[in-house]
Records
---
Amino acid sequence: MSSSSKVKLVELFYDVISPYSWLAFEVLCRYRNVWNINLKLRPALLGGVYKGAGNKGPDDVPRKFHYMVTDLLRLGSYAGVPLRVPAQPINVLLGKGSLPAMRFVTAVAEDSAGDAKVERVSRELWTRIWSNGQDINQLSSLAEVGQKAGLSARKVEELLEQSQSKAIKDKLWNTTEKALDYGGFGFPLTVCHVEGEPKVFFGSDRFELMAHCLGERWVGPKPVHPSVMDSQSHATMRAAMAS
Amino acid sequence: MSSSSKVKLVELFYDVISPYSWLAFEVLCRYRNVWNINLKLRPALLGGVYKGAGNKGPDDVPRKFHYMVTDLLRLGSYAGVPLRVPAQPINVLLGKGSLPAMRFVTAVAEDSAGDAKVERVSRELWTRIWSNGQDINQLSSLAEVGQKAGLSARKVEELLEQSQSKAIKDKLWNTTEKALDYGGFGFPLTVCHVEGEPKVFFGSDRFELMAHCLGERWVGPKPVHPSVMDSQSHATMRAAMAS
């Protein structure tokens, strides 16, 4: 297969409460302009997927949890994602969940035509909880996130109001159910649509396999940053990587 | 860091009941002659690690188990490890455990000076259970494995007898405890000793990170097969990969 073939749809189901989702998010955002893919961000609720799948977080096995912290710091450092261990106990942060935050992201997604705003808002939320150890659910936190992501104060207010609506609550639940329909039991969940078939990948450690499945090439979590290249270079790079 | 520096000890703790351990085993055996490492095989008991860590297998979440089968087949195909879904239910195979098998591997390890025999016996066991869906615990199964791995009928008989001894039972338990001491909660568990510090990696999906930690380079699960190169080529290749 060559990457010069048809653009492939890649869906990323995630929740900002999940630090491994942050890794997958940043890596896929970087590869969006390297691989011949159309990346669609699918904000959903990890708690809902856990409940629907009868799964639990890794924190029910203390050693697994302890390893996870080391693993995340190592992966973050290697991938250039500023994951940090929060000063307050992680269980406290996790215990609060992410319902208001993910409703806000969903409102942003429904309001905007493309994924650019969703991307910025999601990144700001991850930075708050998984880099700065700050709250992500209070109205004031979400307002700050919205403004840091480049939304006007008025727009933020409007989106916060919408995020309480039935339409947004339903949309968030529908996306979560979609993840369950794909067999999801945790996040990140990436669905690559290849020749009419959805190929499902769980976790942030299957990019090499994903590339293989997409007919593309994996060159590590930090491919050449797309902003330094024009679209001609993109095409050249894609061709070189597929050869 | 350059790979021309001191040879680094890498320990692989595994149980042949674990299919992900097979992937890690084959990949590390291939890289043994590509990276500047001294690979030591550490046969241990997954059941013991689960018990000591308060962990459970992935089969307590049905969706996770279902995904695992797809994931294993995809990874096996990509890595060139002949993993297959057994005709009989996996739970039946797993339910029988691997105690006699891992005692036999331990007896082989204690009997031989190097890891060559342990490698061949382990591979034959994985092939039986995870490629052919056959029993790995009956005496007749172990005898067949031993002979396929190149041991004489007499040697196999002797090792099977030794595998029932207190010394071997203790050795298997000690290795399992060692894995727990390193924070283990499942297999494969790889411990890279870098500058006097043990760096612990769980799973068969951290090789790229492991390479980074060892000052080596990851070139996918199928590096050039070492048998086609002489030792001069090894040195050249290592130098090229470290540059």
---
Amino acid sequence: MTSKNYHLVIVGYGGMGSYHAKHLLKGNQNIEVIGTYDKHEDRRTASMADGYKTYESLSAVLSDDAVDFVLIATPNDVHKEIAIAALNAGKHVICEKPVTIYSADLVEIMETAKINDRAFIVHQNRRWDEDFLTMKKIYDEQIIGDVFHIETRVQGANGIPGDWRHLKEYGGGMLLDWGVHLLDQLLFMIDSKITSVFANFSYILGEDVDDGFQVFITFENGITSLVEVGTTNFIQLPRWYTKGTKGTAVIHDWEINGKIVTQNSGEVEAPKPIKAGQGLTKTMAPPSEKAVSTSDLPKVVKTMESFYENVVSVVEGSAEPIVKNEEVLRVLRLMETIFKSAETNQVIQDFDLVPAKN
Amino acid sequence: MTSKNYHLVIVGYGGMGSYHAKHLLKGNQNIEVIGTYDKHEDRRTASMADGYKTYESLSAVLSDDAVDFVLIATPNDVHKEIAIAALNAGKHVICEKPVTIYSADLVEIMETAKINDRAFIVHQNRRWDEDFLTMKKIYDEQIIGDVFHIETRVQGANGIPGDWRHLKEYGGGMLLDWGVHLLDQLLFMIDSKITSVFANFSYILGEDVDDGFQVFITFENGITSLVEVGTTNFIQLPRWYTKGTKGTAVIHDWEINGKIVTQNSGEVEAPKPIKAGQGLTKTMAPPSEKAVSTSDLPKVVKTMESFYENVVSVVEGSAEPIVKNEEVLRVLRLMETIFKSAETNQVIQDFDLVPAKN
């Protein structure tokens, strides 16, 4: 049927499922999409129109010996049952995010993968986003000194998109949809335990699920972070705003517009007070001209394998997964802690400083 | 000595004291500055150079029957003793902010003012700031619908200014210095009880006092607010960022640069997904062209008496104070709650919903 090494079937041929087929796997040297399965008629039709064989049932996919990989791109609530069935059928599994709604379910999947000696890899695609990699480079290379505060935001004005993402039982809401990305990036960047979490959820749209949130996280190494998702924001604050001991970095958008402002070394003239409203301020005056330098954001060159290159390396035993299940599990546990903080309106201080129950 | 109705002496002729003389009271029709008192020699010299009589002691000021008003512009820790002595000597008192470090001290001053039937008015000058009045107009007139989230920030890169503001015992730190303004404005604008407070202080400069903070406040009417002061920010986020049910308003700076973006009524085309990093997003895509309108910030026309006009009206019995002591007291109590939240790393939920102990 194909000369490529691995055959993949997409389960759930909606927006993300078809994005894998048309973009992420397009031109891949090793993996061939050989079919799809979706329980919705319109998506089967779309799959056929796109030239893919459509399976009649999930069990038809799992009993097909030609299938090496199952990609799960369904609503969140059925990820677990499909993943476990696929792993038990001897398939490798790629799963869209958030992998499960509850961390205990991921633990069960991880155990099933281990028993069957199959790969289970979550598609945390935004670890490869250039805005994130740019900020990670600034952080890693101490371009603004030691980073001590990171604000990471995505803000839209369109509300929650119109499908299962509205519904709690399907794993809807913005924490699970976008929060999982921002938190995964943050924890991938900062190698330190979390000491406390405070969260406030927004329900301004009157939905069953959160339409956004602000989360304040403190790390054991002293870094603080404000993580925010909004769907009621008609003006956008910067995607990243990061403070270091020697300067500040801002990335405005996905086109990586932004800048770095750093303090010059040596003695500098004190700032002159400015008129600010009905008073004078020296504290909030701009630094004197020679006190700071503005520079461009650093260019990121490719630093790691692409997601699917890595998937192939993992199943061939030549690399560790870039997205490790233990990392994904920690993010899920953090999201559970964020839900708990928001529901109780309390700071939660026992995350990461006590061993996970699982 | 003068034909004006009221004579005022400035106690503490530093930055703020001389600012009152040179700016706020310059050209005032009713109040004449007739002298100053400062315990520092260099400031007496400055006062003489500026043409003001310098008193030898505080008691010399208080025993001078020609003095109607004492303006207190000393470090925060001695506001109370000077205020009480001046009120007991039959003087009206104007006091710089923060009026006292502890709310109980303000209560004592208020009682002393009442017993002596003298005016005691705190100079919360930033209620007259144009940026604040612009945002208050947007809020009051529901220009972006019902406001449900307000972010109010001042961010500098100069650290804490080099005097008593570094020292805890003098009432230093950014919460007391700038926080008092932002909180006073916020509570003056929002007529609702506070239901919870979460605060995180920054000590990145290694000072004895906070060099900045982020405070998250929730109000009984559903409004949430993020209040922030920073002195380690080489790039500034907007002064105000406010979300309403029909739009968002931003004010970037004290020059009132900014804009309003509101949702158009009627059916609008759904937004088109955009490529964002390694994925597509409809949620975070810009609204379709006809879905929103951008407009200028509204002009604020003078809506209330100036601070010193109001002071004269108050002592003549023709107006209520614009800055009411009960309001100032509530802000002090809120700052005490913020200190408590930051010190314990806890959400404080009993502020405003139980009667004040005083």
